[in-house]
Amino acid sequence: MENYELVLLLDSKTKEADRKALLSDLEKNFKDNIISKDDIWLMNLLYPLKWVKVNDVAYFCSYYLQLEAANIKDIKQAFLYNNIILKYDIFKRTKKQASFEFKTLQKNWKML
Fold first, then answer.
1. CATH number at residue 106
2. pTM of the full predicted structure?
C-alpha cells in the first residue's frame, strides 16, 4: 500500500446536490482507503482552464488515500466521463509526508 493525495477541482456551477452525490460515491467506493478528507470549498483559479469558459472559480476537495498502485487506474476510470470534475491530480506521498488541512495552513500563513 502506498500513500497518495487526490486533489479534485469541481465545476462551481454544478448543483450542490450533484457535487455531494459525486463525492459521496467516491467516498463509498474507496471508504477503506480514505485516511482523511479536506473540503477546501470555493477558490479562484490562478489561470483559466481552456476547456472551461467563463468560470474562474472551482470547488476544491482533497483526499489523503492509502491505495495499491492498481487502484489508481480505477480512480482515473471513475473520472473519465464526468462533467462535474474540471481537473484532478493524484500525487504519490511518502509515509513521512503528513496531510495538511487547508484551514490550518491558512491560519498559520496569516500569523507570519
1. 3.30.70.60
2. 0.75
